[in-house]
Amino acid sequence: MTALGNHLEIYKLLPKTNCRECGQASCLAFAVAVMQGQMSLGDCPYVPDAQKAEVRRSGSRGTDPTEDIQGTLRVLQDEARRGDLAESARRLGLTMRQGRLIIPCLGKEFSLGTDGLISSCHVNSWVSLPILSYVLRGAGLEPRGQWVPLRDLPGGADWGRFFSHRCEAPLKKVIDHYTALFELIVEVFDGRTAPEQFDSDIAVVIHPLPKVPILLCYWKPEDGMDSSLNMFFDATAEDNLGIESIYTLGVGLVTMFEKIARTHGR
Ligand code: SF4
After folding, report:
1. What is the pLDDT of residues 105-143, one digit of tens each?
2. What gap in Å lies between CA 252 and CA 246, rounded to an integer?
3. Fold (topology level) of 7-62
4. Helix (H, G, I), strand (E, B) or coil at 184
5. Atom of ligand 1 at shortest range from CA of 46
6. Ligand 1 centre and the CA of 232: distance in Å?
7. 85-112 pLDDT tens trace
8. Is the Cβ atom of 126 under 6 angstroms away from ligand 1?
9. Residue 18 Cβ contacting ligand 1 at under 6 Å
């Protein structure tokens, strides 16, 4: 078991019934409280003793969320190495080339084979993890063209606040200082502008995964009102990528855009 370095790792140990017996509104809120040191894993009566003991042995909470992402990534990579890539190709409507599964991502090409995930561009682990999750577990449903905020996805209610804090707020900050990032996203990441979306001033659709489009909407500051930014997902998103991976993907994209803005937006 990896050290518990972020609330996602803690959340994975919980039964996710949101029964509230621990006094928190949901299992996710409990996981955050544990991460912040306000509660301990033992405050949930449904975590098996053996698991609590193992967490104690592993040193309990770590400090680097990236370590946990790396741990999960290794597990998924192992699973992908042993998996049936041709079956994934059929399920997801992807192609195989010389024994490798080809996965288009933000206008770039990834390929997955027995030696792992390869791409010509550098991508952080927060993005690699959802790509593998998509390949292994995605249903391959065609997007319906119905945009919804993350909190309105079937499993999104618990995640909305965290997503807003960890993804939408930092991305808004980036765009406030570097609005041209949208143009770069269109040019470099094969995004397309999507006018007339929710009365936004700028709207761009990106495809971080073939059947998981994301709509980025930005409203400029106006009449003393602050700017705002929202990310929308197709109503099918959770069938194609589990809610945890959608969250992780959001973090990965924002991390990548922040880095690009630091490099180009000076
Ligand atoms: S007691 Fe456990 S299962 Fe119930 S809400 Fe709290 S963390 Fe979730």
Report:
1. 988 899 999 888 887 666 667 788 899 999 999 999 999
2. 10
3. 3-methyladenine DNA Glycosylase II; Chain A, domain 3 (1.10.15)
4. helix
5. 2
6. 29
7. 999 999 999 999 999 999 999 888 999 9
8. no
9. yes
